[in-house]
Amino acid sequence: MKVRALISVFLLLIFSCTQVIDNKTVKRESFLLPTEEEITLGNKLLPEAITQFEGVYPDKNVQEYVKNLGIEIAKTVPRKLPYEFVLVNSEELNAFALPGGKIIITRGLFLLLDKESELAGILAHELGHVNARHHARYLEKTLGLSLLLQIGALLIGGEDLTERIIIQLASIGATLLALKFSRDQEREADKFGVYFTLNAGFDPHGLIDVFYKFKKLERKAPPEWLSTHPLPDTRIKEVDRLIKSVKLPDNLKKDSIEFHKVKEKLLATKLSYKAYMEGKKFYKKGLEDKALQKFEEAIKLYPDNQIAMAYASSIYLEKGFVKKALNYARKVTELDPYLLWGWYLKGIALFKLENYHESIKALKEAKKRVESYSGIYYYLGRNYEAIGNIKKAIENYRLAFKLATGKEPWYEDLRRRLYKNKVIF
Ligand SMILES: [Zn+2]
Hints:
This protein is mainly alpha-helical. It has helices at residues 2-16, 35-52, 60-74, 107-112, 116-131, 134-157, 163-177, 183-199, 205-218, 224-228, 233-245, 257-268, 270-284, 288-301, 306-319, 322-335, 340-352, 356-369, 374-386, 390-403, 411-420; strands at 19-21, 28-30, 84-88, 95-98, 102-106. The chain folds into 2 domains: 2-245, no CATH class; 270-420, Serine Threonine Protein Phosphatase 5, Tetratricopeptide repeat. It binds zinc ion (ZN).
């Protein structure tokens, strides 16, 4: 019975290999990773990437602007996907795409730009990677059929993923978030980028202008973007040559008032993020009081600075001011639907207040954001143990143990609890 079920899943996947007609060459291609699964994987990874890059910039008008510009370009591209464009809080100079058409740009990079066509160029380049299926091709090459099948199980399996898939997804996610493209792939994304910007009516020189900015910074403080997107001089020349080879219409969009309004908004919160960054430095050194002071300063300067609030919440938890921690954590979840920390910290605070059922609810929300974060399972375990559901407690402790690095503050306690319950691996 079991074998048969497995075989039918296998056949289903083989037959569902997508056939896509490239509308330029009318060439038929079969994909091992069907588009639907690529989209699911991208959806799974989006909150994780956003959490890694310090949350969504909390101003709705800013997000709306980036989204609208991205969609305007995406309307002209061959792959029809549920594209999403998100500006994140990180100070890094970076932009990247996830499988399935999720595109992320950092606040730091936006602040480096001087006109709309530069932003259009970056988004179009990232759309180029997605349309050339660079992530999907990487997965097809490195994962092999058995793991691709398991990703497929994400779709079939619905809510509860098995332990093994959670662990494997964690490593796939980490790899994809640090994925380096080859020079040929960059060249391909540049080429697509130029065509996409042109088709959407933007001046394609925007991308070259950004390249020159990166080049200028390279010696002093190399932009993070360069670490995943190699940028030799030949690449700039090639893009230049490509643009020169097409006849450009005269009415190409170079800039907009909206771009500058958004940039002004970002400039207005710069000091708040500076205080946040200083706070983070203190926090890393273990100087909690100084860190907290900086985080509070950041919140005072920009009351929606949810990432500063998340850090402050975590320090309040450590200091035993649980209600204060809970207030901030709640606010973080309201300001940022993706960021793991709001839900996670809310879960811990509620656990400490012995509100176990609400804590479990919050931690399950945290799980939807970053499925592979070990602490979620430790605290789920603690809650289940507190309400007497030992079976579920052990299940969660086991997973926490498998996902843990050993450096977590609760790690020794976890081991003790597993030992106490005679769990053998
Ligand atoms: Zn690239």
